[in-house]
Design goal:
By secondary structure, the chain is of the alpha+beta class. About 25% of the residues lie in helices and about 20% in strands. The protein folds into two domains: about 120 residues, Alpha-Beta Complex (Aspartate Aminotransferase, domain 1); about 280 residues, YwqG-like (Hypothetical protein YwqG fold, Roll). It has eleven helices and 18 strands. The longest helix is centred in the last third of the chain and has 22 residues. It holds the Pfam family DUF1963. This is DUF1963 domain-containing protein.
Length: about 400
């Protein structure tokens, strides 16, 4: 007799194998085979198979079909969820000795309900997501779909290389000295003190990036050193237990003097792993998989995009196009096709969940790195947002990290 976990795994494998199926973004950090919440992206109510309270699984069903199924299998029960978009939800007990093949047929029906509610655009994105992944070709396809072919040259010109810093679950002990990581304990030279704010409180350590790894993939920022270790410390990482909004200094911080320190340690300098001071919070250590990606501006105020002088209608079409591109990109790399999927990124364009910060234009700043909400490092910024750090554009082009300015934006 199979256990509940064995049956769940078998059914989850069946559901996730469906065309376009994915684990819900809100549950993306849970193993789909253990805690399935399987859906199709693009629909208002896209979930078609998920675990409810053990031993039940939940899925949508048409009301008439539910009545028919109950005549044969009385163990089926209607969910407490309200009717949504023309269908109800049922809960199926995996302890009721129902044939697995029958439950699979219920998954088929549930999938069909959701698929039939998707519009043409959502189905097209699912089709594209199932094709071999090539970002240059994908961008060209998006340009064609959104009738922007005559602006292909301009769009390619404003696109920028970036490095997506994908994280994986790890531990401090498993991550080598000088390796890229988000959170954890920093690797510093013995003669370098832990950076502190003007009041003496240590800055929070957020990340370190091995630049030799980045250079092999293509440097995303002009002037970025080709090797060594980039380490990021900031007051923007100050969090109190149970809080998600950074506790930045209370004094006026327009210039943010001393708020963020970015250290570049040359390659041949010996490093040691430093313990986090007791007076500042710390984050779990997550290993990093650097991945080169194409980055598109997602706000029309971005100087390269604003300089094109497009009409409002054209900006709107581009915005939908870049959103679709990002959705497919994040769906492939992060298994999360939400266009606002929080992530870590070096170079390229920042993801804006709110307004474009005017300080970037006024101060002549360039985007350096974005540190997102991340389950592996246990970082949460506001409502699933990001910390974004900018530096003086002219200094950055010469490999210097001056006038660093940060911002936190949430969903």
């Amino acid at each position: 007799m199979p256990t509940f976990k064995q049956t769940i795994r078998k059914l989850a494998e069946y559901a996730i194998a469906k065309k376009g199926a994915r684990q819900s973004p809100s549950q993306s950090n849970f193993d789909v085979h253990e805690f399935p919440s399987v859906q199709l992206p693009g629909g208002l109510w896209g979930m078609f198979f998920e675990i409810a309270d053990e031993p039940y699984v939940r899925m949508p069903v048409l009301a008439d079909r539910f009545k028919e199924h109950r005549k044969v299998y009385p163990a089926l029960k209607k969910s407490a969820w309200e009717e949504r978009d023309g269908h109800i939800y049922m809960e199926v007990s995996l302890h009721a000795d129902l044939p697995v093949e029958f439950i699979k047929s219920l998954i088929d029906e549930a999938y069909s309900i959701v698929w039939n509610k998707l519009d043409k655009g959502a189905r097209l994105k699912i089709e594209l997501a199932g094709q071999p992944y090539d970002e240059t070709k994908l961008l060209d396809r998006m340009i064609e779909i959104h009738d922007l072919k005559q602006f292909r040259k301009e769009i390619r010109k404003v696109s920028r290389p970036a490095i997506l810093l994908r994280t994986t679950k790890s531990t401090e002990a498993k991550i080598p000295i000088a390796a890229s990581k988000i959170g954890g304990q920093p690797d510093l030279p013995a003669n370098v003190e832990w950076p502190v704010y003007t009041n003496g409180k240590p800055l929070a350590f957020l990340a370190q990036i091995n630049l030799s790894e980045i250079t092999k993939l293509g440097t995303p920022i002009k002037g970025l050193p080709i090797d060594g270790l980039l380490s990021i410390f900031s007051v923007w990482g100050w969090l109190e237990e149970g809080e998600f909004d950074p506790k930045t200094p209370t004094e006026v911080g327009a210039e943010q003097i001393g708020w963020t320190v970015i250290l570049h340690t040359p390659k041949k300098v010996k490093l040691e792993r430093r313990k986090t001071p007791k007076t500042v919070n710390f984050f779990k250590s997550a290993a990093v998989l650097p991945t080169p990606v194409l980055s598109l501006p997602n706000h029309r105020v971005e100087p390269p995009l604003a300089a094109l002088g497009w009409t409002e209608e054209l900006y709107d079409r581009f915005d939908v196009m870049q959103s679709d591109f990002r959705s497919l990109q994040m769906g492939y790399w992060l298994k999360n096709s939400d266009i606002f999927a929080s992530h870590h990124q070096l170079g390229g364009y920042a993801l804006f969940q709110q307004d474009f910060p005017q300080e970037v234009l006024e101060k002549g700043l360039a985007m350096l790195v974005q540190i997102g909400t991340d389950n592996y490092s246990k970082m949460v910024w506001g409502d699933g947002g990001e910390l974004t750090f900018y530096a003086d554009a002219k200094a950055l082009a010469k490999g210097r990290f001056e006038r660093v300015w940060g911002e936190c934006q949430g969903g």
